[in-house]
Amino acid sequence: MRQSEMLVPTLREAPAEAEAVGHRLLLRSGMIRQLAAGIYSYLPLGRRVLLNVERIVREEMDRAGCQEVLLPIMQPAELWEESGRYTQYGPELMRLKDRHTREFALGPTHEEVVTALARDEVNSYRKLPFTLYQIGTKFRDERRPRFGLLRGREFIMKDAYSFAANWDELDRTYKAMNEAYCRILERCGLEYIRVEADAGTIGGQGETHEFMALADVGEDTIVTCKHCGYAANLEKAAFLPAESPLLADSEAGGRAEVLRIATPGVRTIAELCSFLDRKAEDMIKTLLYLADGQLVAALVRGDHELNDIALKQVLGAEELTLADDAAIAAHSSLTVGYIGPVGLGLRMVVDADVAAMKQAITGANEPDMHLSGVRPGVDFALDQVERIRFATEGDRCQSCGETLVFTKGIEVGHIFKLGTKYSDAMGASFLDHNGRQCAPVMGCYGIGVSRLMAAIAEQYATEDGIRWPASVAPYDVHLIAVSWKDEQQQKVVLELEQQLLDRGFRVLVDDRNERPGVKFKDAELIGLPIHIVVGRGAAESQVEVGSHMLAASGEMKRIDMTAQEAVRYVTEQLV
Ligand code: ATP
Ligand code: MG
């Protein structure tokens, strides 16, 4: 391909709003452009990267025995009503009406469509198991579209759905998909961790894992143990109970009574800490939630964060939201800012680390008052003690007792045992070998194709450009003529191009009438694996070969060689 004929609008500066380094470089190298928030065009170079990622995903899905389909993006609302998700999905679901005012949704994921297909077409165990997949556009009206392709509102996903006669069959497919995902991420050159995840909103009955590409911009916190290799999502991470906090001197004497302390205008834990000169770990935070409309109290230590996903599970609630001031004020015995467990009169879920406290400071359930010396289990009942807080860095691993460490990750893939949630809700069934009617056991498997591209950009970003791994780079070789007008140079470039094309390599020729400095800067930005610069040595068939693969540090290293040696070098490196 001739660069002079290609749309590669490189930029010296990235637009100010691009925060992530990979996003900035995708813009600067002319690979993508934003059309609206979270909606992007892929320009020729970007499209080639995306197609390479797609190819890797497709090859691994086919290898795992999955069948490719293409399902509609535009989906009737009735289908979503059958699964109950038309309302449940909330504002993230893009909705529209046709000319007859019939409602439709733009698919954020395709469980409904694929389950309806199985309901109509598969009715015998003889047709099971099978897995369908597709690569296509998804729509999610994300609250915060961010970091370019990382969190888009229109993006490319590979989604797969498996149907099995029983859980054993599903387990086998799940394992095969797990392996396929590992191979995809390895082939994309990504550094990643597979973590135990939480069933979350898709709502399944079985296990689920997420594949996290490591990157500072990642919005997910991964909890890992360097000692035993344990890795989980923050929402899911298991850990040993915290050490019980030391008591302040005044309380270590074991005073048996609860003291009332006037704390005018002091409402938050932080305010209370400075007002009383005490630590957050000596306090109990009493949080009020609406669980399916019922007011419930959840207690965690002042220095801990409540894990609302764990709380939701413990309560078995469909919907859980933090109670707003109005909901609290509607309850006559509650005082916003001063709520505590003593005499509260609500159902209370108590975190295990609160239950282990000897004494604590809490709200007094009256304005401007707190209580100190409150003993869990004595001054308020411990009817339901659960693990409802997030791990903190420094907590100990439940498997081996070593200290847990936090890392940031980008969720690039997600595999999920759905069970019969959708087949039950939508009435999909098949006859087993005894002629009994059963619901197929399903799994779903998503991988963000455009997000993968962004994650690679993030991990391979340098100051000057993205060093694309050869497996996804838009071209293999950048052939740069220092001066295209120089006949000798042009001749060597064209000969080299022909030889490389004959060997099956993908070649980008910089034939522009630009200054050499501009060409080199653009070549760095575009970041192809091997550069061949044809300059003054052309008459003697001498060229300069540059590659990031030459130096372990990933820096561009250049060496002089003959054109013939350059062809051999490319073959050695890339085949
Ligand atoms: P997140 O927690 O990041 O919103 P999710 O849990 O909603 O992700 P899934 O529903 O599991 O994501 O979707 C499968 C895959 O699709 C994800 O692992 C991710 O790679 C990709 N993906 C999800 N949302 C987006 C998005 N807004 N932009 C780009 N890719 C996305
Ligand atoms: Mg999401």
In short:
The chain has 575 residues and is of the alpha+beta class.
Give a verbal description of the structure.
The protein contains 16 helices and 29 strands. It is α+β, with helices and mostly antiparallel strands and 575 residues long. It folds into three domains: 44-209 and 410-453, 2-Layer Sandwich (BirA Bifunctional Protein, domain 2); 249-386, YbaK protein (Alpha-Beta Complex), CATH 3.90.960.10; 477-574, Rossmann fold, CATH 3.40.50. Strands 3, 7, 8, 9, 10, 11, 12, 21 and 24 form a nine-stranded mixed sheet that branches. A five-stranded mixed sheet has the order 16-14-15-17-20. Helix 1 (21-28) crosses helix 13 (449-459) and helix 2 (44-63) packs antiparallel against helix 6. The two termini are 20 Å apart. The mean pLDDT is 93.
Q: Which homologous superfamily in CATH is the superfamily of the largest domain?
A: Bira Bifunctional Protein, Domain 2
Label the CATH architecture of the largest domain: 2-Layer Sandwich
CATH topology name of the largest domain: BirA Bifunctional Protein, domain 2
Helix-residue proportion: 25-40%
- For the CA atoms, what is the radius of gyration? 29 Å
What is the CATH class name of the largest domain? Alpha Beta
Query: What general outline do the C-alpha atoms trace?
Result: globular
Could you give a short account of the major beta sheet?
9 strands, mixed
**Number of distinct helices:** 16
Write down how many β-strands occur, each being a DSSP E stretch of 2 or more residues: 29
Q: Which stretches of 5+ consecutive residues score pLDDT under 50?
A: none
N-to-C CA distance: 20 Å
Bound molecules: adenosine-5'-triphosphate, magnesium ion
Q: Class by helix and strand content?
A: alpha+beta
Task: Tally the structural domains.
Answer: 3
pLDDT averaged over residues: 93
